[in-house]
Amino acid sequence: MSNDFSVTRDLLDELITLVNSGQSFSDIHLEQDMPIMVKTPRGWRQYGDEPVTLEDMAPVLKSIDEDWEDKIIDSAIDRPFDLTEYRLRCNVFRMSSGAKVALSIRRLPLHPIPLDRTGLPQYVKTMLDANRGIILVTGPTGSGKTTTIASMLDQINASRSAHIITIEEPIEYQLQRKQAIISQKEVPTDTASFFSGLREALRQKPDVLMVGEIRDFDTADTVLHAGESGHLVLATMHTNSAMSAITKLLGFFPAEQREQRAAALANSLIGVIFQSLVPSEQGEEMVLAHEMIFNNNHQAASYITDPSKFHLLADFMRRKEDNMSRSLNEVLAQLVGKKAISAKDAMRATYNRLELHELLTGKR
Predict the structure, then answer these.
(1) CB under 8 A, 24+ apart: contacts of 258-262
(2) Which of 90, 274, 278, 335 could form a disulfide with 242 if both were Cys (CB 3.0 to 4.6 A apart)?
(3) Contact assessment for residue 92 and residue 76, using Cβ atoms and an 8 Å cutoff
(4) What is the mean pLDDT of the segment spanning 264-278?
(5) DSSP label at 8?
(6) What's the pLDDT tens digit per position in 75-125?
(7) Does residue 144 sit in the same domain as residue 95?
(8) Residue at 88 is within a domain
């Protein structure tokens, strides 16, 4: 007669240990009947060999949402989950024609990091001294836009008696009141959409507005209106350069409105920050590379209002006439020169490989 004792796997405890381990990774991927995967600076890596069963995942999914089994039939579930040092953004979804369940986890610090530790230059703080206008933070998915925006808002929170309203999907950093009043709204729980949340917020006496993403005409229109009417607006967009953020924003408007909207944007734009995360030379962490267009003294306004001059904005960034605007390639070349990142990774991060090659080889 044999004693066969089955040991139940405590996946939640494993995840807590992994999240708090201090290892350099941004995301965890759990997929039914597959081993755990983590996203490191050098890409996805397997963590352990043991496949995760649905039985293993069930307590974790239940801690995210008690009714996950019923809710996942209709759509994915997006929920935050707080640990002692980190905030996890959890997305539960079905795959393989409903045969499998997966869980995607993004690991974020529980509190915003100081702005001077983001990797952006110190003079970015001058953007936040403005009482009105628009600041765009742009970049591809996973480039740290949310982290930068949270750091900016925390800087304002610590230095100004203002009312800050955020519209997010979901709320990723819980901001604690310092000098400012903080009102954080989540789409679709607290408001139906980014547009409706922004429109409602304008009636709630805000000084600073943060829009999680500009993704349609209505939101773009309201952002421009808010920036012109005495509010400081911070917003994110998904683009591949600082210049393309301006093009994309104006592209939400019909052709017959663009001249008028371009004039409004040129008048209210404080600046655009494009950012990309690049693996460090040792591959142990991510390094922030940035590109910036400053318009705090309307130095870039003429390039925005006149379509025939817009392409010259790239030369404006390269010339660094205001000592603040920077091209991505210049920053990448500097990081390679400091041995913070490799030339190979810099070439992967740029959108102008020929120019960067010339900078790295001293031909420009």
Answers:
(1) 259/305, 261/224, 262/304, 262/305, 262/307
(2) 274
(3) yes
(4) 97
(5) P
(6) 999 888 877 688 898 999 999 998 999 999 999 888 899 999 999 999 999
(7) no
(8) yes
Can you give the pTM of this predicted structure? 0.89
Between strands 163-168 and 208-211, the pairing is parallel
Q: Is 286 domain-assigned? A: yes
Do 178 and 292 lie in one domain? The reply is yes
pLDDT on residue 322: 87
168: domain CATH number? 3.40.50.300
In the chain, beta strands by DSSP E: 27-31, 34-40, 43-52, 77-82, 86-95, 100-109, 133-138, 163-168, 181-186, 208-211, 232-237, 269-279, 286-294
Listed residue (79, 54, 82, 60) closest to 15, CA to CA? 60
Q: Are residues 126 and 63 in the same domain?
A: no
Partnered with residue 293 across adjacent β-strands are: 272
Nearest to 194 by CA among 175, 209, 214: 214
Q: Quick one: tokens of 355?
A: 């120019």
pLDDT for res 363 = 67
Same domain, 220 and 270: yes
**Cβ contacts of residue 304 below 8 Å, gap of 6+?**
246, 262, 265, 266, 269, 295, 310, 313
Please compute the mean of the pLDDT values over residues 2-15 and round it to a whole number: 72
For residues 123 and 214, membership in a common domain is answered with yes
Q: What is the CATH number of the domain that holds 79?
A: 3.30.450.90
The whole-chain average pLDDT of the chain stands at: 92
Containing domain of residue 96, as a range? 11-109
Residues 105 and 245 in one domain: no
Q: Greater confidence, 235 or 23?
A: 235
**Same domain (yes/no): 104, 145:** no
The tokens for 95 are 């795959």
Residues 248 and 279 reside in one and the same domain:
yes
